[in-house]
Amino acid sequence: MSRPQALWPLFSDLTVLPGVGPKGARIFAQMKIATPRDLIFTLPHAGIDRRRQESIRDVELPGTVTVEVTVGRHRPAAGRGPARVEVEDARTSFLLIFFHARGDWLTRMLPEGQRRIVSGRVELFDGIAQMAHPDYILHTNEADTLPRYEPVYPLTNGLTQRGMAKAVAGAIGLAPELPEWIDPGVIAAEGWSDWRRALATAHAPDADSDLATVAPARRRLAYDELFAHQLTLALVRADRRRKVGRVSRPSGRLSSRVRAGLPYSLTGAQERAIAEIAEDMASPHRMGRLLQGDVGSGKTLVAFMALLAAVEAGGQGAMMAPTEILARQHLESLTPLAEQAGVVIEILTGRDKGAERAAKLAALQNGDIHILVGTHAVFSDDVHFADLRLAIVDEQHRFGVSQRLALGQKGERVDTLVMTATPIPRSLSLAQYGHMDVSILDEKPPGRTPVKTALVAAARYDEVVERLRAALKEGRQAYWVCPLVAESEVSDLTSAEDRFRRLRAALGEGQVDLVHGQMPPTEKDAAMAKFAAGETGVLVATTVIEVGVNVPNASIMVIERAETFGLAQLHQLRGRVGRGAAASTCLLMFGAELSETARKRLEILRDTEDGFHIAEADLAMRGAGDVLGQAQSGLPRFRIADLERQAALQATARRDAQRLLEADPDLSSPRGMAARTLLWLMEQDKAIQMIGAG
Ligand code: ADP
Ligand code: MG
C-alpha cells in the first residue's frame, strides 16, 4: 500500500516552497520540519493586532501600533547613533529610529511631506515615543496588503516571521481537499469545518481567541492527531486480538498452594485483577494488559499468580524489572512463594557470565526453569525459552518502546502484562496504553498506617539528625535520599558521599551505609542486604531506591532538596516506607529558596497519599513530557493536540476510532479509506503496515 497521490505534494522536499532553498531547508530541519506536511501542522502561537489606529496615543505603550503618518524631518545618524525620522499621526508626533540605514534608502522609503502607513512596536524613551525599525512602511494605497491580525510562528535562528509565513502559505497551497475521516456525528456536534478549511483558518487567526486550544479550527486539527493516534492503537489492539494466542488455562493447582500459605487474604482488587488476567490467558487471543496500581497495592503477588497460571498450563513465565536491585528483590520475595508452589524460579541479569550463564540458558531452553526474573538481559538474542507463555514487564515506563516490542517477540504468541508503579493520569494512559486492556488495583491491603509527611527547611538539618538518632535507638530504620543536584551523575554522587560521611560521623560508623548507581553491583547488593537484615540503621541513597525496594522495618524517609524531584517520584520514594506495622514518617527537606509553586507541589504530597490524585496534579503542573520522560515514554509527540488539556477530546477520539474499526475492520468503506489517508497524513507508519495491502 502506498501513499495516496493527493498527499504527494505535502511530502515533497521543502525546497519546492517559495523562498526555501537548501540552506533554508536545513534551518527548518532544526525545528523538525522536513516537509510541507510538517509545516502546515506548525501553527502560529501568537498574533499581532495590526488594525489601524488614529494615533499611537490610542494604544498602551510599549505596544505594537499601526498608524498613518505624515513624514517630517530626517535627522541623519550622528556617529554611531541611529538615524531618526520625525513623523506625525492624527494626534501626536513621534520618531522612527533606524540603525545602520544604508545610503538613500531612508529618503526613498520615507520622503519628507508624504503620507505613509507604519506599523511596529512603539516604546517610550525619556518620554519620547519611538518606533525602531517598523515592521511595515507602506504607501497609503497599499493599506489592504497589511493583515488585520498577523500570525506569529515559532522560529529558529536564521528564520524570519516573513520567511516563515511565506513558506507556510506555500505549503497550505499544496494541501488538497480530502474526504472526511471524522464521524459525522462528532463533526456536527462540534460544528467543525472540513480539514482543508480548518487548516487555512488555523493559519489565519483574526483575534487572540482564534489561537486558543478551544478555537474550532485548532480543535479539529488536534482531534485529527488524537484520532490518528487512537486509530493506530485500536489497530494494534485489534491486530493482537486477531492473532491466535495460546490458551493458557490456569488449573489453580499451584496457586492454591500459594494462597494457602499466605498470612493474609487477597484484596478485592487483587482478586479482580487476577481473574481478569486469567480470563485473558485462557482465551484464544493474545493478552495485552496493563496492571496499574499505587505503591504498595500488591502488584507483585498479582504478577506471581499470573506467572503461576502460565506454569499451570504447562508453560513458562518471565518478569522483567528495570534495575538489577529490583530484579534481585523480585527474586527474593518470589522465591518463598515459588517454593511453596513447587516451581523453579531463576534470575538472569547482565551479571551472569560464562558457564553459569550457559547453564541457565540451557535449563531455560529445556523447560527446567519455570519462571525467569531478570533485567533487560532477558531480551538478549541467545535467550530461548522452552515455552514462554507470559511476559511481564514491571515498572514499565523505564523501558524503551523497542525493548517492549522485543519482549513480545520472545515467544510464540506470548501474553503480555505490563505493570506500572506510578499511577498514570487517565489522559496519559489513554495516549500511551490505549491499545491495552487495563486492570486497576484501587484498594490497598488493610492494616497500613498512613505515612505522616512533613515539610522541613534544610536549615533544620541538625534537628533532623537528632530525631533520627532517637529513632535509631528505638530500633527504627531510615532511608536518606540525596538530591538530584546535578546535571552530572558525578556531582549527585559527591553529595551522597558527603552526606554519608557526615551522617556516619554524627550517628556512628556501623549505623550508616551508602548505596548508589555507580557502585560495583556486589557492593550494592551487600549494602541492601545489610539494611534489609536490620544491620544498618540508615541507608543513604541516590534514587536507585526509588522503585519497588521493600524493607518493611524501614519507617523513616528523609528526602533532601525534595523540590528538585517530580511529584510522582517523591510519591514512589515515600512508598518505600509505611510497609510495616510501625507508624512511618516522611520528611521532605527543602532548600532555602522555595518558590510558591514548588511549595504548593510539596504540599500536595503532604496532604494526600492517593497516587492517582498526585499523578493528576503532577501532570497539571509539569506537563506530560516531564511526568513520563518523553523520550522513553513511548508517548506520541503531538504538534497541535494538548494531552493535558484535551483529555476529553482524546476519549472521544478513542471511541470514534474503536467504533470505526468495529464497523469496518479493514478500513475499506469510504470513511475507512478516508481514515487511511489520515494515517498517511499523520505518518502512522506502524498502523499502515498493519492494515497491509488490503
Ligand atoms: P507494589 O508492587 O504494588 O508496590 P508490593 O507487591 O510490593 O506492592 O506489595 C507491598 C507489600 O504488601 C508486600 O510486602 C506484600 O507482601 C504485601 N501484600 C501484598 N498483598 C497483600 C494483601 N492482600 N494483604 C496484606 N499484605 C499484602
Ligand atoms: Mg491467551
Q: Can you give a write-up of this model?
A:
- Keywords: ATP-binding, DNA damage, DNA repair, DNA-binding, Helicase, Hydrolase, Nucleotide-binding.
- It holds the Pfam family RecG_wedge.
- This protein is of the alpha/beta class.
- It folds into four domains: about 5-45 and about 155-210, no CATH class; about 65-140, OB fold (Dihydrolipoamide Acetyltransferase, E2P); about 255-440, P-loop containing nucleotide triphosphate hydrolases (Rossmann fold), CATH 3.40.50; about 450-610, Rossmann fold.
- About 40% of the residues lie in helices and about 20% in strands.
- It is built from 25 helices and 21 strands.
- It has a seven-stranded parallel sheet, sandwiched between helices. Strands 16-21-20-17-19-18 form a six-stranded parallel sheet, sandwiched between helices. A five-stranded mixed barrel has the order 2-3-4-6-5.
- Strand 20 (about 555-560), helix 18 and strand 21 (about 585-590) form a beta-alpha-beta unit.
- Helix 7 (about 215-240) packs across helix 25, helix 9 packs parallel to helix 10 (about 300-310) and helix 10 crosses helix 11.
- The longest helix has 27 residues, at about 215-240.
- The chain is globular and about 100 Å long.
- The model has no long low-confidence stretch (mean pLDDT about 90).
- The site of adenosine-5'-diphosphate has 15 residues, from helix 10.
- Magnesium ion binds near residues 245, 248 and 281.
